[in-house]
Design brief:
InterPro entries: cNMP-bd_dom, cNMP-bd_dom_sf, Env_Response_Regulators, HTH_CRP, RmlC-like_jellyroll, Tscrpt_reg_HTH_Crp-type_CS, WH-like_DNA-bd_sf, WH_DNA-bd_sf. With about 230 residues, the protein is of the alpha+beta class. The chain has helices at about 5-10, 20-30, 110-120, 120-150, 150-165, 180-190, 195-205, 220-230, and strands spanning about 30-35, 40-45, 50-65, 70-75, 80-85, 95-110, 165-170, 175, 210, 215-220.
Length: about 230
Amino acid sequence: MTNDWMKERLKNVPLFRELSDHELESLVSISHVRVYKPRTFVFMQGDPLERVYFIHSGTVKIYKTDMSGKEQIVSILQTGEMFPHTGFFLKGTYPAHAEVIDEATLIAIPIADFEQTLICYPELCIKLFRVMGEKIVDLQNRLEEQILHNTYEQIIMLLLRLTKTNAVRQGKLYRLTAHVTNRELANMIGTSRETVSRTLSQLKRKGLIDINEDGFYLIDKEGLEKEIFF
């Protein structure tokens, strides 16, 4: 990969979008491109925490497993996003698994090198803090959903959250940009696949969600908001 190719890819990452060519050059020198096939792992929970990754293309699922092997999905990440966010604040091991869903091209940067870059460019550090702040707010919202809402409402709120993070608008509807199974939706909020299936069937009957010919969910965002907030 040429330096110009890498520079253009880094410019597509929201965190780096406003950096000058000189600032991007400092990142190019420490960046490496890696391509991962579907169903392969970028890293596994407990592996030594050594690199931070930025998604050029593809889909990556971040999830944790407990002692019994039960899966809890933290997020489904796509183009332009970075992971793990905790890489700059924790030492030791990766806190979750990162599994590739759709073939992914990732830009990998060693954490030690990236930390030195942050020291040299404080404005980049400020941007990173903003990203972390957004993640903290998201986690607070998820906790409130668990405490204040029943399962039916939690599933609706999950779908609404996905319209913000993993969807594109198509007329009055939002189409998810990642294939998600009922099992994966259940693992995002800690409920059963059967409960999710029943709720989704209800929402389909009400015309609030559908699935297109390619298997992607179509979501009536305004309809779901009225279902839960009015």
